[in-house]
What we know:
By secondary structure, the chain is of the alpha/beta class. It has one domain: Uracil-DNA Glycosylase, subunit E (3-Layer(aba) Sandwich). It is built from eight helices and six strands. A hairpin with a 2-residue loop joins β5 and β6 (about 190-195). It is globular and about 50 Å long. The relative contact order is 0.15.
Amino acid sequence: xxxxxxxxxxxxxxxxxxxxxxxxxxxxxxxxxxxxxxxxxxxxxxxxxxxxxxxxxxxxxxxxxxxxxxxxxxxxxxxxxxxxxxxxxxxxxxxxxxxxxxxxxxxxxxxxxxxxxxxxxxxxxxxxxxxxxxxxxxxxxxxxxxxxxxxxxxxxxxxxxxxxxxxxxxxxxxxxxxxxxxxxxxxxxxxxxxxxxxxxxxxxxxxxxxxxxxxxxxxxxxxxxxxxxxxxxxx
Length: 235
């Protein structure tokens, strides 16, 4: 798909946020001891997956020593380990782990993107950084014609997607949907938003998010996608 290729090329070259540019490059120059000697990507991250996907996954932003190091979204950190294991379990990928850009991983009927494309200090993008990055997500929504289910990982990704969806011309239910793990938001006859806690170490180590809880949201996504392919089905 030429459109997504051109968009991803634009994303990778982006330098709109000086603070994020400084941070991503500074981390690459002084990595933790376990990553010393590795060449960091240290650029914005494009989305990854099947451009004809029916499932769109939206995260927050790359990790400083995860995606910012490997050059692939949700790759090289524990959050990614949780995500790709679940994708494999439910038939959306050809392997259960994502280690580096050339590891042979392929996604099936799934595309992963993020609210912000550069690693932010303390994993906290500033408001203006969200604003500068949102047009990329809006453009993805224009390009991805087959998306039927959106899985938002964390409240910030949930809210960011709703803003992008609204800017894309979509109508938001009233009262405005609130984030709740496992919650479903019907955004139209053919689009459902699912909310999930982010598989961050802060959530998984404390038990706020368990494997069972995480897999439950993928079961919901799988059922919704199966239903949407039935003749005459309307979500």
